[in-house]
Design a protein that fits this description.
- The complex is a heterodimer of chains A (about 675) and B (about 325).
- Chain A is mainly α.
- Chain A is about 70% helix and about 5% strand.
- Among the domains of chain A are: about 280 residues, no CATH class; about 45 residues, no CATH class; about 45 residues.
- Chain A has 25 helices and eight strands.
- Chain A has a three-stranded antiparallel sheet. Chain A has a two-stranded antiparallel ribbon with strand order 1-2. A two-stranded antiparallel ribbon of chain A has the order 7-8.
- In chain A, β4 and β5 form a beta hairpin.
- In chain A, α3 runs parallel beside α13.
- With about 325 residues, chain B is mainly α.
- Chain B has one domain.
- In chain B, about 70% of the residues lie in helices and about 0% in strands.
- Chain B contains twelve helices and one strand; from the N terminus they run ααβαααααααααα.
- Classes of the chains: A mainly alpha (about 675), B mainly alpha (about 325).
- Chains A and B meet through α15, α16, α17, β5 and α21 of A and β1, α3, α4, α5 and α10 of B.
- β6 of chain A pairs parallel with β1 of chain B.
Chain lengths: ~675, ~325
């Protein structure tokens, strides 16, 4: 079957644009919601068709319109298999987010403008879909900025809360920090004025002097790293992702930050090619810092959506570990081993998109049911929301890298990529890569603790608030999205060998290295030379059959089950106050890593004025402000405020003064015109 | 076909032998304390008795609580089916490598911690929190020990590591191997809830970890949880003896090597179990917040193992 790819591509744009416009002019909120969802869904389906057509055949799809906005170099679209993978991710998450959003945004009916929301939602999807298709600097930057601006307005949906406004400010500042770095990066790469097509950049990159190449790399790492949310450029992420509506959070955490990964891969492995080993080392260091930092802050977080956002920082770190290992191996002339690293990074990108979308959408259901994001007020949700609980459990197990789900498969591949680094006979590599292995192992152990907490405290035991006790499943249409991503999480885990083979094909087409690693050995996930193997499918079958045999034989013997109270040392009635809380669960690890957290603690006892032994109340408050933010960002924000304060003196509010400014500016303009003539 | 039968045989052997290890340690400890103690095969009686009793399930618990014993038991048993016990023939005969074994055991712990939280009992939550803390801190040590072994063998697969150590007996006594063994031994104590990290002999003490987590279990559920825990201990001991001292292990599936393998395996496990029993009579339980120091010491040992393996090459 042949697909007219340019028709599908144009249909995608038309779908998003129509969704945006119809939503904007819709007569009622309900119609606006419908138009938003239908436009976004049809655009996403068309985009998915385009992407899959490119992925299936492997040949590129091009659409160049130099006459459109010719002054900036025209619009150029080219979709290769790397771009198609990311387009497929954007569109599949976009499709289900649109379906989910139709009922989810019903809560906003009458409360805020769903017309504007619909415009921005579709613009956001359009921007994200165009980024991996862009083939010249103008198109890329346009799509990149469209994505950033639209998502800024989506973050500000609940703009009456000061948290959302602060999140929006941080987000706007950080995303423009990245944008500002992109411009010089492209400028250095452009071989001549006007040659801004990616083909020219690719051709010109090999002729650049080493210093310029390294500068391009460093700029790309900082610019795309800030979008991907790596530590220490992650500060916007745990603020902005939770502030947005849950299906937008899913899009942001599931795919938008992945476009940072896309940009980094495009510039380093496609344009620049092989670089010195320190590039890989730097990426490994950034990846380790993000993986560990992200999971440590996720662990102590009590806000369910912030916890998930920090977990995204961790997973981007894992992806960067894969890329870093690949860059190091590439620089030592081991392209076959490097392919394992790139393949692992891409596979984890796809896997994380699946389980993080699943988790955010399930968290959206929780938010609607329990009316809070604070885990300390949840509990027992598994009884009222069994489907959401199942979805969240699958997502949690995948995020904790447990077999046989997809998170395990890609982390196993990252482990193998890092291990092959230990074979290089250079002390810094031979010590650095085992350390990265240790970091990754600690990260996944802490991730397991984090998600035991996230699922156990929110969904299990007794409800800690009336809202949590009354929480029920939302409309069934929310389940389609959960079901789709839960299924993807399981299937990508069980059939990971086929998935990694597909990733190898993509890496092969981008880095132009022949594939001599055995990718999909049937059911076996293999390391570079096939010396280590694991079969998630076989493990799943074995575990399931042993559990079934155990269950059947115990069932056959027969046993009585008596339902009784939880044992409580003789207390009369169990209440939710006796349960372990979210803070208590994380307390041992918080103490162990207290040097990193540096919590502020405030403990006060108020006593009766007449008898000091009678205690009226004891209050204990503790807060963790990440010290990276304090150390790195406080001086910057303080400096910006100081400059703003001194600039304010110019604006005294007097009309005479302003007239003087205008006159001075006019004089200066005239003088400079005379001077330059 | 013979491989499938060998796997089945090994799985049954592990399931049958695992309770004996725990009972044996308890018996040796009793003897060292000057008590007569229960016979080593007491755990079999316990399991049989528990299987015949009714199970009491908390009102607050969900299906997670009832499913967990099966998850714990089956993950431990599947890991036991693919670590080398009596034989380690080359080729692909097992479902996973060292990483898969570690992560599959983590799956069991994950569910056990959830079940601890599920009943809403403060003991369960406390146990779950502490167990996840200890497990998270042991992961890097386990991974680095794997790296140290894999550096020698060039792979994380069991049969590669075993055959490499058999081929080069000198490497097995080298500093890299010994340090990695020491690191993995400390991790074994921590992961399986032995002294000085956790005390397997007490219930209802504020210091307990694993026992607090499974406090609500009874009847056949408890039998499965206990059996799974003993399988985990068995797997860790088997890994320690067979990866570091594989001598005697059968490399083919012929009857005579298999018989030799079985005898040497039982002897090696017995020696290591005795060592644990002796250790447990000599040390006191560490305070919970001293445990990280022990675990970071084991991490440093594993790191040194990696470094010396690298330098020795």
């Amino acid at each position: 079957m042949t697909v007219d790819r340019s028709a599908a591509f144009l249909f995608m744009i038309a779908g998003y644009v129509a969704g945006a416009i119809v939503a904007l002019i819709a007569p009622s909120d309900r119609i606006a919601r419908g138009a938003t969802a239908i436009g976004a869904a049809s655009g996403s389906v068309a985009g998915l068709v385009t992407a899959l057509a490119v992925l299936a055949t492997g040949d590129r799809f091009e659409l160049v319109r130099p006459d459109m906005i010719a002054v900036a170099g025209g619009v150029a679209i080219q979709l290769d298999s790397l771009g198609a993978l990311f387009l497929a991710l954007v569109c599949s998450v976009g499709l289900f987010a649109a379906v989910y959003g139709f009922t989810y945004t019903a809560d906003y009916d009458g409360r805020r403008s769903l017309r504007f929301f619909g415009l921005m939602f579709n613009a956001f999807l359009l921007g994200m879909s165009l980024v991996p298709c862009a083939a010249n600097v103008f198109t890329f930057l346009f799509a990149w900025e469209l994505m950033a601006v639209a998502s800024y307005f989506l973050v500000m949906t609940e703009h009456e809360s000061s948290d959302a406004r602060a999140a929006g400010l941080w987000y706007a500042a950080m995303t423009h920090f990245g944008f500002v770095l992109l411009l010089p990066m492209f400028l250095i790469m452009a071989p001549a004025a006007g040659a801004t097509a990616f083909v020219d950049l690719r051709a010109g990159a090999s002729a650049l002097p080493p210093a310029a190449r390294s500068t391009v790399f460093a700029l790309a790492l900082a610019a795309f790293g800030s979008k991907a949310g790596v530590v220490p450029l992650h500060v916007w992420l745990p603020r902005a992702h939770p502030a947005a509506p849950s299906h937008v959070s899913a899009l942001m955490s599931g795919v938008m930050i992945k476009l940072g990964v896309y940009g980094l891969l495009r510039v380093t492995s496609d344009f620049l090619g092989t670089g010195p080993a320190w590039w890989g080392g730097l990426v490994l260091a950034v990846g380790s810092l993000s993986a560990l930092g992200g999971v440590l802050y996720a662990l102590t977080e009590n806000d369910l959506k912030r916890l998930l956002a920090y977990s995204s920082v961790e997973n981007v770190g894992v992806i960067f570990l894969g890329i870093g290992a690949a860059l190091v191996l590439q620089s030592y002339g081991l392209p076959a081993l490097a392919m394992v690293g790139f393949g692992a990074a891409l596979l984890h990108t796809v896997n994380h998109a699946c389980f993080k979308t699943l988790l955010f959408l399930a968290a959206g259901n929780v938010l609607r049911g329990a009316r809070t994001r604070n885990m300390e007020q949840m509990g027992g949700l598994i009884k009222g929301m069994p489907v959401t609980a199942m979805a969240f459990l699958i997502g949690s197990a995948a995020a904790a890298a447990l077999p046989p789900l997809n998170g395990f498969a890609s982390e196993w591949m990252v482990f193998q990529a890092l291990l092959s680094g230990a074979q290089i006979a250079k002390p810094e590599v031979a010590i650095g890569s085992p350390l990265a292995v240790g970091v990754l192992a600690l990260t996944s152990g802490l991730a397991a603790a984090t998600f035991v907490k996230a699922f156990g405290i929110s969904f299990l035991a007794m409800p800690r608030s009336d809202a949590a006790a009354a929480a029920r499943e939302p409309h069934w249409s929310a389940w389609t999205a959960l079901g789709a991503f839960a299924a993807a999480t399981v299937v990508l885990g069980l059939f990971a060998p086929s998935a990694i083979a597909a990733m190898y094909r993509i890496v092969e087409s981008v880095t132009a290295t022949p594939r001599n690693v055995t990718g999909g050995g049937g059911i076996w996930l293999l390391s570079a030379h096939g010396v280590a193997a694991v079969s998630p499918l076989l493990i799943a079958v074995l575990v399931a059959s042993v559990a079934f045999v155990a269950f059947a034989s115990i069932r056959a013997r027969g046993f009585d089950v008596r339902v009784a109270d939880t044992w409580g040392c003789g207390r009369i009635r169990q209440t939710a106050r006796m349960e372990y809380t979210s803070s208590a669960f994380a307390e041992p690890l918080r103490r162990i890593f207290s040097e990193l957290y540096r919590p502020t603690e405030d403990f006060s006892v108020s006593v009766h004025p007449e008898a000091r032994l009678i205690i009226r109340s004891i209050t204990y408050t503790t807060r963790i402000v990440p010290w990276i933010e304090k150390a790195l960002y406080e001086p910057v924000t303080r400096g910006a405020r100081a400059i703003a304060a001194s600039v304010r003196r110019l604006q005294a509010g007097s009309v005479h003064l302003y007239l003087l400014y205008i006159a001075a500016a006019l004089m200066a303009a005239l003088a400079s015109a005379w001077w330059f003539e | 076909m013979s491989r499938a039968i060998a796997i089945l045989f090994q799985t049954l052997l592990a399931a049958g032998l695992a309770p004996l290890v725990g009972g044996f340690i308890r018996w040796v400890k009793a003897r060292l304390n000057g008590r007569r103690g229960a016979p080593p095969w007491q755990p079999y009686y316990d399991i049989q008795k528990l299987l015949g009793k009714e199970a009491v399930v908390s009102r607050t618990a969900s299906w997670i609580f009832r499913a967990t014993p099966f998850v714990v038991f089956s993950t431990s048993l599947v890991v036991a089916s693919f670590v080398p016990l009596v034989a380690a023939p080359a080729g692909r005969f097992i479902a996973g490598d060292l990483f898969a074994a570690v992560y599959l055991l983590l799956l069991g712990t994950f569910f056990l911690a959830l079940a601890g939280l599920d009943t809403g009992s403060p003991f369960g939550g406390m146990g779950a929190s502490r167990e996840m803390t200890v497990v998270a801190l042991t992961e890097p040590t386990v991974a680095l020990s794997i790296v140290a072994l894999a550096l020698n063998a060039g792979s994380t697969s069991f049969s590669q590591i075993v055959s490499r150590t058999l081929a080069e007996p000198a490497a097995a006594l080298g500093p890299g191997h010994l340090l990695a063994f020491a690191a993995l031994f400390i991790v074994t104590l921590a992961e399986t809830g032995r002294l000085p990290v956790d005390n397997p002999a007490t219930h209802l003490e504020l210091t307990m970890i694993h026992e607090a987590m499974v406090l609500e279990y009874s009847g056949p559920y408890l039998a499965l949880v206990e059996w799974g825990a003993s399988l985990k201990l068995f797997v860790f001991l088997a890994l320690a003896v067979n990866l570091f001292m594989p001598w005697g292990i059968a490399v083919s599936l012929a009857p005579i090597p298999l018989a030799i393998g079985l005898v040497t395996f039982v002897v090696k496990i017995g020696v290591l179990a005795t060592a644990i029993a002796v250790l447990e009579t000599r040390v006191a339980k560490l305070r919970l917040f001293r445990v990280p120091e022990l675990l970071s010491a084991s991490f440093v040992l594993a790191l040194l193992a990696v470094l010396s393996t690298f330098l020795a090459r």
